[in-house]
Amino acid sequence: MPDKTSPGKVYNVLFLCTSNSARSIMAEAILDREGRPRFRAFSAGSHPAGRINPYALDLLKQVNHPTAALHCKSWELFAEPGAPKMDFVFTLCDKAAGEVCPAWPGQPMSAHWPFEDPSDFAGPEAEKRALFARVYGYIANRISIFISLPIASLDRLSLQKRLDEIGTRQPEPA
Fold first, then answer.
1. Topology at the third CATH level for domain 11-168
2. What is the C-alpha end-to-end distance of the chain, expressed in Å?
């Protein structure tokens, strides 16, 4: 549970997807830019792809996100001793939501915010790029709602309800 006694608390947020190559990477980049200084973003996958999807990387560069520090990583990295303590963990795809996650130190709040995987789209390049942009907008919209929550003033049950509601909202582009 987030620390209600620290007004300057920085909340660590982990976004999970199976391959950590598109949706979770985009979420990390979005929160890292939009949520600072209150939030610190991370992403990982249960079976990391080894490289960021080139369409996701191109899109992030086009909308001026720093990308040099972004890379695919395993979620096990965040369950190891000495890993940053997460305050929130969000799964962004059905596959990762159904897997058994590691035990996260500190019992972070968690929720499932599903988005279709634009990496799975097989069609014309223009349509693929448009789908990546649309999913990026959906993720940005949910993150915007999340960072506007009065986290410190909500009890754990109320906060969990709000996090779950964000994940069930119909996607709206940012």
1. Rossmann fold (3.40.50)
2. 28
